[in-house]
Design brief:
mainly beta; Jelly Rolls; nine-stranded antiparallel sheet; eight-stranded antiparallel sheet; 4 helices; 36 strands
Length: 591
């Protein structure tokens, strides 16, 4: 039996043995949704004894079983006690276990282990890997209710699991450092999720560029030759395991010592064609035009729009900056305590303002505009990569301002609640950015629960009969962004005073009863092929056509391109036939 066949056989036995625990894998077909490869799963499960060698006194609950494909997505959870989050990478080839944490059920089949101890029983985790689980280091069985939105993708150049050894960093001034390149420099912008497990604490690196002459004006720079220069986003996690949502023209991990290290990882890069906006650039700030901000500096990355932007920004600036998302414009009377930005005193936007006190990092955002900012008059430089959708308003893609009401939950009578997405049998998954008149807590509900599923995890119920598991995150701030998944979304305070919250939310809504949707039948007419190529070259882009009032289904593509529709919002995009096949296979688009 070959090593590959043996590995597949061992995994099959492991999955079959786990299937012998029906309470453990208590997720039936009706609790899953698939949208051309985009899947949503919501459920409540009980842990079992961890089958890993050396983990016999631990408990484990597998949410996504080992696969030869790469899972990537977001998990929102509520457990009966604090849990650890686990992603597996592998199986590893012989000799690849060289210092990084390992999990094995039999001593032969080995997985690298990303193990994140959140020290909390509720939260959200962005992950990538060949399996997903939650875990405790004690023998007591626990319950976990969860919602997870994920993709299960075949391996490719940008969707991969691997184990590599670092080499001496070839960057000038980095000769005593070690570097492991996961995605090599490219003129295209990568945007995705990385989960990793290394033999020692590492730093995360995204490059932006190459920079044009004169663009290196204070921000951190990496160059292999003194001529080709990249702006450098450098994130020090002080950990050997974790996950990172990134955007940039290259991806690597790094240490500032000469000792070689090993890193096992899973990375899933989203195709650039699914986004409305994919940009990498370097800009100078200007005086902030907002009233009361005259001594501040501002650099606008995505200008105000009547649509909702949602995506990820990775940045590297010449000094620590603040991150800004605007929500609005507000209607008359909606500015009632939350932070406001206005250029003229009439047009007012609610302001999500995040001060990380850092010059480099990544931010997941949703709003009607995106900018970075400082509270001093000195001009700054920022290099960045951003991947975002620009979506029309809908029931689940919206910007608004609402007042809280008394929380209707039993035991919450002295609390205030503002519901952003009402309870639904469907699963919401997306991003919310918010600005409130006081610090608030973030709430996702999972359920309703079946009888007997409320076994220790936090519960919210309006009547004592209908019960939801409760993910409750207290960031202790009035402004921020949250990536979530669940059957409802709300914000909350634990006092009786009414509050105001302005927000932008971009969420997909998928029915738990929905199985894989059939692709739309190809248009057999193909009338565009009769048009002259010279005429087709003058056709506006799909986004321009839709902005001018053309329906997505009526968009005309240039010669040689194929019309498909983004799964996230149904908008049109024109791509080559091979790219269309890839996007449809991965679940990012339909025909």
């Amino acid at each position: 039996m070959t090593n590959k066949t043996s590995t597949i056989f061992t995994i099959s036995i492991l999955i079959f043995s786990l299937a012998m625990y029906p309470s453990f894998l208590n997720v039936d077909a009706a609790s899953m949704a698939t949208m051309e490869g985009v899947k949503v799963q919501s459920g409540t499960i009980q842990s079992v004894q961890d089958p890993g060698i050396g983990h016999e006194t631990h408990q484990l609950a597998i949410i996504l079983p080992p696969s030869d494909k790469v899972y990537s997505g977001a998990l929102t959870y509520s457990a009966s006690e604090p849990i650890q989050l686990v992603a597996l990478h592998g199986p590893l080839a012989e000799g690849e276990d060289t210092g990084q944490p390992i999990w094995t059920p039999d001593g032969e089949t080995k997985f690298a282990l990303t193990f994140v101890d959140s020290e909390a029983n509720m939260g959200t985790w962005k992950f990538s890997g060949n399996a997903l689980a939650v875990h405790t280091m004690n023998t007591n069985q626990f319950s976990v209710s969860y919602s997870v939105k994920y993709w299960e993708s075949d391996m490719s150049d940008t969707i991969t699991t691997g184990t590599i050894q670092s080499i001496q960093d070839p960057g000038i001034g980095h000769e005593t450092h070690q570097l492991a390149i996961l995605l090599p420099p490219s003129e295209d912008v990568y945007s995705g999720i990385l989960s990793y497990s290394a033999s020692e604490p590492i730093q995360l690196v995204a490059l932006h560029g190459p920079l044009a002459t004169g663009e290196d004006t204070g921000q951190p720079i990496w160059t292999p030759d003194g001529e080709t220069k990249f702006a450098l986003t450098f994130v020090e996690k002080e950990a050997d395991m974790g996950s990172w949502m990134f955007s940039g023209n290259a991806l690597a991990v790094h240490t500032m010592n000469p000792d070689q290290f090993t890193v096992s990882y899973s990375v899933n890069v989203m195709p650039s064609e699914i986004f409305d906006i994919v940009e990498s650039g370097t800009i100078q700030s200007v005086q902030d035009p907002g009233i009361g901000h005259e001594t501040h500096q501002l650099a606008i990355i995505l200008p105000p729009s009547d649509k909702v932007y949602s995506g990820a920004l990775t940045y590297s600036a010449s000094e620590p900056i603040q991150l800004v998302a605007l929500h609005g414009p507000l209607a008359e009377g909606e500015d009632t305590g939350q932070p406001i930005w206005t250029p003229d005193g009439e047009t007012k936007f609610a302001l999500t303002f995040v001060d990380n006190e850092e010059a480099m990092g990544t931010w997941k955002f949703s709003g009607n505009a995106l900018a970075v900012h400082t509270m001093n008059p000195d001009q700054f430089t920022v290099s960045y990569s951003v991947s975002a959708w620009e979506s029309d308003m809908s029931d689940t893609i919206t910007t608004g301002t609402i007042q809280s009401i008394q929380d209707p939950g039993i035991g919450h009578e002295t609390h205030q609640l503002a519901i952003l997405l009402a309870p639904s049998e469907k699963v919401y998954s997306g991003l919310v950015s918010y600005a409130a008149s006081e610090p608030i807590q973030l709430v996702a509900l999972h359920g309703p629960l079946a009888e007997g599923e409320d076994t220790g995890q936090p519960i919210w119920t309006p009547d004592g009969e209908t019960k939801f598991a409760l993910t409750f995150v207290d960031p202790e701030t009035a402004m921020g962004t949250w990536m979530f998944s669940g059957n409802a979304l709300a914000v909350h305070t634990m006092k009786t005073d009414q509050f105001t919250v302005s927000y932008s939310v971009n969420a997909a809504e998928m029915s738990p009863a929905m199985m894989e949707q059939d692709m739309m039948e190809e248009d057999t007419m193909k009338e565009d092929t009769m048009k002259e190529d010279t005429m087709m070259e003058e056709v506006m882009s799909p986004l321009q056509q839709m902005k001018s009032g053309v329906k997505a289904s009526d968009v005309i593509c240039k010669a040689g391109l194929e019309l498909i529709f983004k799964a996230i919002d149904g908008s049109a995009v024109c791509v080559t036939s091979s790219t269309a096949s890839t996007l449809i296979q991965r679940g990012w688009a339909t025909q």
